Amino acid sequence: MIQLSVNGKVQSVEPGADVARLLQVLDLSGKRVAVERNGEIVPRSLYIGTRLAEGDALEIVVAVGGG
Amino acid sequence: MNAPTRLPEQAADPLVIGGRAYRSRLLIGTGKYRDFDETRRAVEASGAEIVTVAIRRTNIGQNANEPSLLDALPPSKFTILPNTAGCYSAEDAVRTLRLARELLDGHDLVKLEVLGDPDTLYPNVIETLKAAQTLVRDGFKVMVYTSDDPIVAKQLEDIGCVAVMPLASLIGSGMGILNPWNLQLIIANAKVPVVVDAGVGTASDAAVAMELGCDAVLMNTAVAKAQNPVLMAQAMRKAVEAGREAFLAGRMPKKLYSASPSSPAAGLISPKAA
Fold it and tell me: Is the ipTM of this complex over 0.90?
């Protein structure tokens, strides 16, 4: 398994996993989220095929109430 | 009761922001409500077409079936205006809005706010100017929260922001319009819409903002933290409409030292001696 940081917390995924697989593991597939990997936006169209590497830092965000 | 008559003056008075026309001049924030149902009912009562949202980390491991804000307020029905609340640097604000653009399928109308400190939430105008430059260059349509400094407001407009949004008073304070003179200076010089953002406490504050000539009002806490948010949302809709109409109508001049009777002075049944 490789270790990632997801929203500041440690998360393990199998080697070779891509962003789509990570979202599946996190139960977020099909949800309206946006993903940033090491400071760069990962467009939705690239979830499949964007391979994750040991130590990657991911941010997964949603819209919440705010003014 | 007869339906209210729509006067010809009211027929076409859209608020145009970033090339798009809106009927409502009230923008509503979606924070601090009890639940999404109350949020939706308040937004509907307000008549708002533009609603602000915040961008936050998703809770990993939460119930996957938990309702989401954008189910209650679908982007197909409302213009969703993502904000940068909680950002204290230009870099964080830009990063947040790039995520927002991805989240909202390329939607480029955004609310920029870069705060100075957590106690006052007063805008850091230096970081705000920096972020605005980057975002405009990056193709965003930026509505920008700022202080009521007319020089800064003009600089933000010159950078290319599509609306400038000075505070009336501190965010969430409900203190109303503390400096109407500065707001008027901003309005007099602006060629983009001026939206009062923050500080409105009750309906009369919103009406005053519109009477001053603001193009719109953005509020959250005044509605969400009213005893009855849905009723207050409706009151705000009326206040913004009334204030706009009063502005368009042009108020009578104030006469400080002389009264003027509205009824004829002649023909009294017991004429006063001159």
Answer: yes
Encode chain B (274 residues) as per-residue pLDDT tens digits.
566 666 766 667 999 999 999 999 999 999 999 999 999 999 999 999 999 999 999 988 776 677 889 999 999 999 999 999 999 999 999 999 999 999 999 999 999 999 999 999 999 999 999 999 999 999 999 999 999 999 999 999 999 999 999 999 999 999 999 999 999 999 999 999 999 999 999 999 999 999 999 999 999 999 999 999 999 999 999 999 999 999 999 999 988 888 888 999 889 998 776 5
Separation in Å, CA of A63 to nearest CA in chain B: 5
Residue of A nearest to B63 (CA): A27
Q: How far apart are CA B24 and CA B241, in angstroms?
A: 8
3-state secondary structure of A35: strand
B99 contact A CB<8A: yes
Instruction: Find residues 246-265 of chain B whose CB sits inside 8 Å of chain A.
Output: none
CA distances from B41 to B1, B224, B235 (A): 25, 11, 13
